[in-house]
Specification:
308 residues; mainly alpha; MetI-like fold; 79% helix; globular
Length: 308
């Protein structure tokens, strides 16, 4: 290579580096508005909420403005609060029972039935199930409130018309209401996952004499495992923060039998005026959600490595 060619090649290399630097600066410039929105609408409010969780701020009264930093006082109160720990237990039952188990199992059953059913049956059942999902949550709450009251349809169906099931079995009723509403989401997600199952794999297992249930548990479910895990993650995060359905149906009662963490947080912050303590409960709820998310993501790691 001649000297002129070397100088030309060096000049082109410097030009490419300068052009790449310009692209990087331009890209950062385009990202700045999104970063500003993220900081202003998410990080700052979350940081301020974390700070309020360590203060004695109240909703009304002199401490509404002249509040002070109290350190771990709210955390200590929460650790010794039996209602809080009861609320954690109720929240886990609500999330696992009405969300992870009920919605996943029912959604998978409907998705599997949809594969084998006639197109008209599949469309009719799918439309009915999805209708429950698209209804506003407050409407679902009033439907199930009327359904489970004394003289309601639930009592008519089981022959106990005088029973008020929201008083005798409140947690069961709100779990059924949440499962009824959310099953459509799992059905749609898992139906999409089942479409990605290679037909050749199922046919090969069938030729080897495997029964339907064997093919389901040995072939289909392992293939759609990532879809199942993502579905359960989304259900968990949606159910753990559910407030409207439970509060509209029971207001956390009778007593504290349905006071899941979002409802108990509201009661403490807006009914008992303890805004700082309510914020601490909200932070605990956020930590529980983060822990559950990490568990799901760790379960997905082998699948992500295989996909690379």
């Amino acid at each position: 290579m001649t000297a002129a060619q070397e100088i030309g090649a060096g000049g082109r290399a410097r030009w490419r580096r300068a052009d790449a630097d310009k692209v990087k600066i331009s890209t950062i410039g385009w990202l700045l508005p999104a970063a500003a929105l993220l900081i202003g609408l998410f990080l700052v409010p979350v940081g301020y909420a974390v700070y309020l969780g360590f203060t004695n701020i109240e909703l009304l009264g002199p401490l509404a403005q002249d509040y002070s930093f109290t350190g771990l006082a709210n955390v200590s109160r929460m650790a010794h609060d039996p209602v809080f720990w009861s609320s954690v237990k109720l929240t886990l039952i609500f999330v696992v029972g009405s969300g992870i188990v009920a919605q996943t199992v029912l959604g998978l059953a409907l998705a599997l039935l949809g594969q084998r059913a006639h197109v008209m049956v599949r469309a009719s059942v799918g439309s009915i199930v999805v209708l429950a999902w698209v209804l506003p949550e407050i409407c679902v709450a009033f439907i199930w409130y009327s359904f489970s009251q004394a003289g309601g349809m639930l009592g008519e169906l089981i022959g106990r018309t005088s029973s008020d099931f929201l008083s005798t079995a409140p947690l069961l009723i709100v779990c059924l209401a949440n499962a009824w509403r959310g099953t459509a989401f799992s059905m749609l997600v898992l139906s999409a996952g089942l479409r990605n199952v290679p037909q050749e794999a199922d046919e090969a297992a069938q030729l080897e004499g495997a029964s339907y249930w064997t093919r389901l548990f040995r072939v289909t479910l392992p293939i759609i495992r990532p879809t199942l895990m993502i579905n359960m993650l989304l259900i968990t995060l949606g159910t753990i923060s559910d407030f409207t359905l439970v509060f509209a149906m029971t207001q956390g009662g009778p007593g504290n039998e349905t006071a899941i963490l979002p409802v108990y947080m509201y009661i403490e912050a807006f009914q008992f005026n303890a805004l700082g303590y309510g914020t601490t409960i909200a932070l605990a709820l956020m930590i529980i959600g983060a822990i559950l998310s990490i568990v799901y993501i760790r379960q997905l790691r082998p699948e992500l490595r295989r996909g690379r």
